[in-house]
Amino acid sequence: MAERLVGADHAPPDLRAKITGRARYAEDFRAPGMVFMKLLLSPMPHCRVRNVDATRALALPGVIDILRASDVGEPSDRPSESMLTDEPLYEGEPILAIAAVDEETCAAAIELIRLDLEPLPFVLDPLESLRPGGPNAFTGGNQFSGQDGWSEYKWTDAEFAAIERGEMPDPQDMPTTWSKGDVDAAFAEAAYVVMEPIVHQSLTHHPMEPRSTMAYWENGRPFVYVSTQSAQRTKMGLADALDVDPEDLTFVSEYCGGGFGSKIGGHTHMALAPAMSRKIGRPVMHRVTRYEENYIGRARPGFQSWVKMGFRADGKCTAIDLLIAQESGPYGASDYNSAGSIADLAFTPENIRFRGVAMYTNTPPKAAQRGPGGAQIISMLEPIHDKAARQLGLDRLQVRLLNAPTADVGFGPRNGTLTSVFAREALAEGAEIFDWEAKQALSGRRVGSKVTGVGLGLSPYTAGSRGYDGLLVIRPDGRLYAYQGVGNLGTHSIADTVKPAAQLLGLNWDQVEIVWGDSSRGMPRSSIQAGSQTTHAHSRANYAAAEDALRKIRLVASRQLGGSPNAYQVDNGRVSGPGGSMTFAQVAERAIALGGEFDGSTLPSDISERETVPAAQRLAGQGLMGVAADAYGGNGSIYSWQAGFALVELDVETGMVEILEYVGWADCGTVIHPRSLKAQELGGSIQGMGMAMSQRWVFDPRYGVPFANRLYTARPPGFHDVPLEMTAGAVNIPDPQTPVGAKGIGEPSVGAGAAALTTAIADAMGGNCLCRTPLTPDIILAELEGRPGPWSRLDQHVG
Amino acid sequence: MAEVESVGVLEKKYSRRTFIKGVIATGATVSASSYALRGTSLLGAATFQTSTERLITLNVNGQQRRVDVLPHETLAMTLRYKLNLTGTKLGCDRAECGACTVLIDGVNQYGCSILTHQLRGRSVVTIEGLEDADTGELSVVQEAVMEQGGFQCAFCAPGFIMSMTAMLDTNPNPTREEARHALSGNLCRCADYDKILTCAMRAAELARSV
Amino acid sequence: MATIKDMIPPFDLVQPTSVDDAVALLREHGANAWVLAGGLDTFDWLKDRIKRPGVVVDIGGIQELHGIRDAQGGLEIGAMATLTEVINHQRVRSEYSLLANAADHVATPQIRNQGTLGGNVSQDTRCWYYRSGWPCYRAGGNTCYASAPVAMNREHAIMGTSRCVAVNPSDTAPALIALDAKMVVQSPRRRTVDAEDYFIGPTTDITRMTILKPGDLLTQIHIPATWANSSFYYEKVRDRGSWDFQLVSVAAAFRMSGSTIEEARIAVNGVAPYPVRLEGVERLVRGTNGDEATQVAAGDLAIAGARALARNDFKIPMMRNLVRRAVRSVA
Questions:
Q1: Domain boundary residue among A296, A314, A338?
Q2: Which of A193, B151, C125, C290 could, after both became Cys, cross-link C331 (CB 3.0–4.6 A)?
Q3: Which residues are CB-contacts of A74 (< 8 A; sequence separation ≥ 6)?
């Protein structure tokens, strides 16, 4: 009997390479004659490049060439990022690139370049740009639409006067507005209403691996070695950017050292090395430094917001009024929209109003960061929700359960539905594992200078998608080869999404070979590796391909051995039935002999013509092919949940917080790989803790220059910042609308960890929510001592 | 000023003739090794550099390796770009992440923050040097990581594994808290800390049972 | 000139094997020379391409600078002894655990394995304006960016400032002061100064953190027997548990007679451009048993005259509380 695969732990197939130093990430590749490229970054937050004098640079021995903005794209009048620019919109934006025989020469050359820059007005703080007469990030204005071009959106003096008074401003014309019900009426009747201004600061993604790229061209075809979260999708995007046929592009990304949303597809600067290489006819290594990651590496958008929540006496949330000004960098982001929908989903208010505006700023670009919008809003709202429970004299867990959704939820502006939701189950089960009853009793306990705080948060995020293709081949060696167009960013989904397929085919894990990372081997149409969708999307796609393979195996067997195909069963690499038994190796050989659909010589009509067919065609005639589109369908959005519970000790004399215990418990459908699940839950939770406790940007406001632009000043959490032991798991209830029952988990965890922290700290402070992140010792101590804090409530980019 | 001219590799005055002459003079063709730091002895071209490379012998993974090293070259760069040992990673190049951790005389240090020329007479061990050179058998730490399925994106893994190896040398029976402290100079952005620590404890257990 | 980072500019490397040779080289090359010890301060400057010495003098090969030896009942610690060697030394652990504790709070294990005690006490401030190469007073310019009302000065000083508001970042410095350590400096002749006099403030020379001038070399740190086996207290408050420099730290040594404090030495760092020895507090607690009233008085006295910048008012109660806790530790 083949071993159980789904729900069991197996070492991912790439682990040995990773721990022996054999795994090669983008910067590990070398090519004969390879040269190096480095960037010249803007020293000003907003300026125009009037002139570049590179004469001395280009005369330096060993310097090969230079790329300017005009070499790599057309100047744009819209706020869209290009690889190089003559109007930098943030300090650190790349202006030009130099290629030379070595990096030293690149650096020396860059220092010889004379830049003539015209400083332009800049703005860092969205509220400053909203102020009447306040600066704009772009010369054209601070709002852009495709239809109307540039415009200016400002609040009035009335709004700022309200802010001054500590009230929620009430702008009537916010660019994004939606509402359900009547929040004002609900507030009027509520037993408890609370309004808080809240800031959630931006923070850089900082994956461990910077986004280096190596590229060369041969006979007009590019070979590119990149760092990216996705694979097949990135390949398609990069081919477009390079204006080549995707089948002419050899795209290698076997290992990605993290992305968290900053490398979802082809990030902007990925095409620079290929562009330079094409120009000079040499392989080019673009090694990106950590310092550059601060700039071009993306960050989570910050929010300056006002939240008003109303509750009935029994704790039911009757209204949420949410107003968000998002710090969007120069190129925009959409976190704030997700924030509004997720607030609606997570707390199921009977009435809701959402108003949001994305404000451009002259700060490094923003992009989705693990749980974009959702992580922030849960971190922000949970302490407010807790405050209400406390004021109403109710148990926080009970109130949270009450306000968590059930299967009939309709959320967001279009009342979206879900395929399944077991949020209450996750919360209840997690609470038991955490022993909420006992821990709650410790809330506020003071021993010496340490006060105990207990917190919880419930965090949803998208966790699936549909409609991709699976591609499997059983070769004459009897092994199953799973062709993955999925990126290997460290989630192990390249392997985990194959397990249900392999299990259906009755295989042991050591009979399965995952093929990934090199587009020349064949990549079917795949999702991006973002939005936690891969586990769901590709367990389905691979399962569809496995069902196709199983059907064909049975047909082959019945033709060869007699009897009805449905009477044949697979196990342990064999197919057996009324007529006897064949090994998979024999089945593969038969399939090749039979041709047609059996070996992929003919293909189904519903797989992607442009993306999957070429990959399948490469593999035709090599064995028994299982290839299919995910046509399982489904109604509603796919979301997963994580409940986070934390116990902390706050030292009232220093403001330092120690996290002593943490439990994460999820609803993510069927658990395919328990150990991997726990790692995702805890990894995301810790990223949330970093968000809540230590990470931020810091800008000098006069010069528009960031200072937390080193890894140590960025303060991502290390070993000493998290508990010694942590627990995570899931309710493991299958989603009924997907054959494997599995949903993703990567993103709900961030909000769970962050919220568990922000609520625990508030709890330790007697229910006092500080309403900003990160909650560093200085802020906490100032509050406890009743002294002026370092920042005002709505300050951004400070620390 | 005039518009910037692009310069193809063989077009400027400092150029094809000198390049080829240099290549012929050194009797070398442009080979597969590529240098982030100056390796232009192969290209035969003088550069602006005021400092020169010196040939030194390094003890790396038990082998004596002779390599041309610039005075200001860090160990991480030498390993990655001159010795083809890319297992040691550059995460920050500033002693702030630990991805470049190697063993110097058995002690874990950041390879990005030490000059190669400071290592004459000292032994360097990298991730590639942990497995048995003849049999390919993994070290005890590596076995523990395989068994426990440690790491996610694993860019931090080589550095962590070197730190675990050093830890077992000085503290063969650590508590979980001691192990955490020993590993606290390695950052993991995937935040696989809990599992990584379990690997370290398992490695200690396995090492003690050998 | 356009700028770029993370590429060490070329230099000539010299590796003397004696202190005399090192000093001679430093004299010869003057302002063009740079001392390389553990490198953890050096490489930041070089990789940012802000400092560009033509000659780097690697003192790692000078045997007499290494090692920890018994000396006159106390210890003589070579300036090149690594922090790990200091932490693991049997006598440091058993008799001068304050120093082991402080050293163990520096950065990370790898940095402690390579960073030296001499380097740790001699390191330059981490004010991020200064470290980014901005032309402030400390860099020879004529302004201070960090003291502006809107500047990001959360980590800067609350006392002892004079045009410059940066702080001394060393973890071992207050411990050495509390142990009444003596610093042996070759400049060019050998002299010895008390630890607290090793550090200078901006009124003495705004461009340096210590008495070391170009050409000088710190060779040994002597720990006298005076404070061996005393009651010690060390605490470092910081944002993260690794890597981070202190917000505020305290190091204290108490000589007890029963439950009475006979003598005390207390130093705080992270609050001024130099580590601050709290002599007034030492006098206040002498002869007391460190009861709560004493703790409170000690804390209040410690912060007397402290003046916050726009963003670092919290350091005042933080410093006060750490001093209270130091006294409380022997109550």
A1: A296
A2: C290
A3: none
